[in-house]
Specification:
single chain, 534 residues, mainly beta, Purple Acid Phosphatase, chain A, domain 2, Jelly Rolls, 2 domains, 9-stranded antiparallel beta sheet, 7-stranded antiparallel beta sheet, 6 helices, globular
């Protein structure tokens, strides 16, 4: 019985490598591959698969993708009947459709045999070193130097039942196979990039049961275990009805990009809640992505033609990501004024009584938090570029209204204003940098890793006269696992070692003057906030 066969893996990751081609192996030929593909998950939304599936297919077609990846939940619990209708509605995409089943692909007749016969163009699961997955479910497709790998987390006819060791063994062989190809004497057959897709994300770990970025599934896909060094360029899941790109593991440049935006009710952070699809371009070593949606939602009917976010998946550049000095006219005061080419210029939003005030002593404008209840944030659909898990430089000027004041000055993390509250309990909601002043007038630098565990660093010296202006700089070095704190141009005590680097953070946002959502707010002012990676 196919239903008794091992069902493939949980929550894949569609990954990337930054400075090297994503599956980077030594190759005798230059990578000149050129390919475009689209990604959209969770087209469910009615028995026949999606309240605007026709519009999605129409607008995806305009980009002329070589392949379209659909990471599960084609339909909403309607089983075989729904699959057949979905197949007909998406017929214009032809055999370019590559799918994995999701937890909603259940219902009458939804067996592995039915999946295989309905979507008979999907490849069989190639046997590698004696290991094999499930046909049309665990498979890969090679095209022009790119390998797409499907490995599912959900069985047709049965909701998620956990990851299978046999599926992981097969996936490991898939990456070993790439390494063998890239090391042989036929460089024209080399694989330069790997993209893995499945239904459930890695960093929503309690839901997916994959073990998060510390789990074996993630480590297999990112080349951190066994005897191969291949890593997936990016992992493309759905399941959560939201758009959420992230680089959740500082040890590897692999991305996880959740694209569950095809038709279900949106449930992510409010500023990212947009229906749409991802278009990915691979040109040689460079991989770029655009999230395409409808700026006015459906006011004039659904038209998925607007670029809502774009980024370079293989971008390894370092430098300044944001700079806020709060000077200029009313609108300019709350804009990111960085001149860096890698900045995305996210505006600041003020909450409560937070305001831009003129400060006579400094002869400049500052960001003011007058009551210990107000805060500011920099939320926008592409703010994931501020989620720095590795080498971080964070500096700003601050003063507290009382010399014994405390609170959070800057942080990035959380899943504030997400429609699904359980998102806040996942690895993706980890805080990945936070700077506080504690009651002892010491600087606390902290972050979360794994399953919401905290790593905290406390300065060995204090900052006195907190009701005066101070310049604070935090340098977190991933290579030697140290944090160095500078106050007013001088090192504040010892350089401090840490054990655990931050992970996750994909659902987070940047906050000023408070912790996530306005908690632990300061009463005071800030100026000249600069965020960089190195």
């Amino acid at each position: 019985m196919i239903m008794n066969k091992i069902f493939a893996f949980a929550s894949l990751t569609f990954f990337f490598l930054s400075s090297l081609p994503c599956c980077a192996q030594k190759s005798a030929v230059k990578s000149t591959n050129k390919i475009r593909f689209a990604v959209v998950g969770d087209t469910q939304g009615g028995e026949f698969g999606g309240k605007f599936l026709d519009e999605l297919v129409r607008d995806i077609q305009k980009h002329k993708p070589d392949y379209v990846l659909i990471p599960g939940d084609l339909v909403g619990d309607s089983g075989l009947k729904g699959w057949k209708a979905w197949k007909q509605k998406t017929a214009a995409l032809g055999n370019r459709r590559l799918m994995s089943p999701g937890n909603h692909d259940i219902g009458p007749g939804s067996t592995f045999e039915a999946w295989q016969s309905t979507f008979d163009w999907l490849p069989e699961s190639k046997k590698l070193n004696g290991k094999k997955g499930i046909d049309q479910v665990d498979y890969f497709v090679d095209y022009n130097g790119v390998r797409f790998v499907s490995i599912s987390t959900d069985r047709p006819g049965r909701r998620f039942s956990g990851s299978a060791p046999e599926a992981l063994d097969w996936l490991n062989e898939v990456f070993k196979d790439i390494q063998r190809r890239n090391n042989d004497d036929t460089p024209q057959n080399d694989i330069h990039h790997v993209f893995t897709f499945s239904h459930r994300p890695i960093t929503t770990q309690r839901e997916s049961r994959t073990g998060g970025t510390n789990g074996k599934w993630w480590k297999t896909m990112t080349g951190q275990i066994d005897d191969h060094s291949i890593a997936t360029c990016a992992f493309l899941p759905g399941h959560w009805h939201m758009y959420q790109p992230s680089r959740p593991d500082p040890k590897v440049p692999t991305m996880e990009i959740i694209v569950g935006t095809g038709g279900g009710g949106l449930e992510g952070a409010a500023h990212r809640n947009r229906h749409g699809f991802l278009v990915v371009d691979v040109v040689g070593k460079k991989v770029t992505a655009k999230f395409i949606g409808d700026k006015d939602h459906d006011k004039n009917g659904w038209n998925f033609v607007d670029v809502l976010d774009e980024f370079n998946v293989t971008d390894s550049r370092t430098g300044e990501l944001a700079y806020y000095d709060f000077q200029g006219n009313k609108q300019q005061r709350i804009k990111d004024k960085s001149k860096s080419k890698i900045s995305k210029h996210h505006p600041i939003h003020l909450h409560g009584k937070a305001s831009i005030e003129s400060n006579t002593a400094r002869n400049s404008n500052v960001l003011s938090f007058p009551d210990g209840k107000s805060y500011a944030d920099a939320k926008s659909i592409g703010d994931n570029n501020l989620a720095i898990l590795g080498n971080l430089s964070l500096e700003f000027d601050f003063r507290l209204d009382r010399g014994d004041g405390t609170g959070t000055l800057v942080c990035f993390g959380g899943a504030h204003q997400s429609r699904n509250r359980s998102l806040a309990q996942q690895e993706s909601a980890n805080c990945i940098y936070r700077v506080d002043i504690n009651r002892e007038k010491r600087v606390e630098v902290s972050w979360q890793y794994g399953d919401s565990q905290w790593q905290k660093i406390v300065s060995s010296k204090t900052i006195d006269s907190l009701d005066q202006w101070h310049h604070l700089k935090i340098v977190r070095n991933q290579s030697d696992k140290t944090v160095t704190i500078f106050a007013d141009g001088k090192q504040l005590g010892d350089r401090l070692k840490f054990k655990h680097a931050p992970t996750g953070g994909g659902s987070g946002s940047l906050y000023f003057g408070a912790f996530v959502g306005g908690k632990n707010a300061i009463q005071g002012s800030m100026d000249n906030v600069r965020i960089s990676k190195f």
